[in-house]
Amino acid sequence: MGKKLIVILGFTTAVLGVILAVTPFSNLAVVPIIIAFICGLLIFLMSKKDQNKPKSIQYIFLMTIIALVLTIYKSVYYTSEVGDTKQLEQRDEDNLEDSKELLEDIEFDEDL
Fold first, then answer.
1. How far apart are CA 63 and CA 44, in angstroms?
2. Is residue 85 in a domain?
């Protein structure tokens, strides 16, 4: 039962690592990658005692390596670009002026 649980945990964290690695949240993929790697090592050590080599070890390590490569690639080559902030500041000022004009046009009842 313990080995099956570790295999399932390894597969799910490896798949989660690959999914997070291809999304904009690639920095969060590191945690599932580490967990999948540890699970793969545990399965490897357990299978070494039993002297049988299941394919699940290879699949977990393959997905872990793919997720790790994608995460490293995105962290090295992805640059976040900051746009022209002057246009955003001007838009904020215009919205503030429009809001002030709308508030001035509203009539309140003094009967309250």
1. 15
2. no
Tens-digit pLDDT profile for residues 16-75: 999 999 988 888 889 999 999 999 999 988 888 877 777 888 999 999 999 999 999 988
Positive or negative torsion for Cα 81, 87, 93, 94 = negative
Total tally of structural domains belonging to the chain = 1
- Are 58 and 12 within 8 A, CB to CB? no
Total residue length of the chain:
112
State which residues form the domain around 64.
Answer: 2-78
> Going by C-beta distance under 8 Å and a sequence separation of 6 or more, which residues neighbour residue 35?
9, 10, 13
